[in-house]
Amino acid sequence: MTVTLTTSVPEVPHATPRLSTKKERLVRASAHLWRVQDARDRVLGHLRLVPDPLGVRYRAERLHLASSSFRLVGDFWSADDAVAALRNG
Predict the structure, then answer these.
(1) 8 Å CB contact between 60 and 73
(2) CB neighbours of residue 86 within 10 Å
(3) 36 contact partners, CB below 8 Å, separation of at least 6
(4) d(Cα 37, Cα 58) in Å, to the nearest integer?
(5) Three-state DSSP class for residue 88
(6) Count of the separate structural domains present in the chain
(7) How far is residue 35 from each of residues 22, 24, 32, 63, measured CA to CA in Å?
(8) Which residues contact 88 (CB under 8 A, 6 or more apart)?
């Protein structure tokens, strides 16, 4: 008899959040991460889904190339607010 032990839960991709404006679009980067691109396909930053006890939060982040890490712009209750922070920041 063989016993298989699973030590992690597989990533389940979430549906792409819908934005109320067509100024930006979301391009999936991983199961919980999207690149935010403007109409000219410039990357403004990233949108990440973050679990919260009160529901799902939308985290706006920018990639810092020198350190290869993400810098937090802010956590928001709506994808539109997170994308607006990337657009205006």
Answers:
(1) yes
(2) 20
(3) 24, 25, 26, 43, 44, 45, 46, 47, 60, 83, 86
(4) 16
(5) helix
(6) 1
(7) 15, 10, 11, 10
(8) none
User: Does any domain span residue 80?
Assistant: yes
With respect to residue 39, please indicate whether it lies within any of the assigned structural domains.
yes
Residue 26 token pair: 């979301």
Residue 64 scores a pLDDT above 60 = yes
Is 65 part of any domain? yes
Confidence of residue 35 (pLDDT cuts 50, 70, 90): very high
* Tokens encoding 9: 């839960």
Query: Does residue 3 fall inside a structural domain?
Result: no
Mapping DSSP to helix (H, G, I), strand (E, B) and coil, where does residue 82 land? helix
pTM comes to 0.81
**pLDDT tens profile 79-88:** 999 999 999 8
Q: Is the pLDDT of residue 45 over 70?
A: yes
| Phi, psi for 69 (deg, rounded to 5) | -135, 165
Q: Which structural domain range is residue 64 located in?
A: 24-88
